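Posting this for the archive.
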Amino acid sequence: DGYVLVIEARGRDSPQGPGDLLVEIMVEKHDIFYRDESAPEHAHLDVEITAKQAEFGTSLIVPSLLGDDLETEVKPGTRNGDILCLQNLGFPILDSEEGDCGHQLVHLQVN
């Protein structure tokens, strides 16, 4: 939120030539996904699981940023606060020339 994207030589003309175009990016809050300012490319999601699922492991269906459901595995012995990392399924990294994305981090809440 508040990230400024600089596009060189695409701003207003001046006697010294074209200026830079500055684009401020504001991100709306999502109902279930959230960001951490220290690593804004990652999409965080809190998911509740039962103590039995944590103890014995389970297959878990979680939503993705694209709107589809993803299947992932909770390993036996999972503890409250453990995090599952779904690689390259987070937000686009704005400075990446390769189109890289962050990760979707699923925070497991055992109840």
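The chain has one helix and ten strands. The first strand starts at residue 3 and ends at 7.
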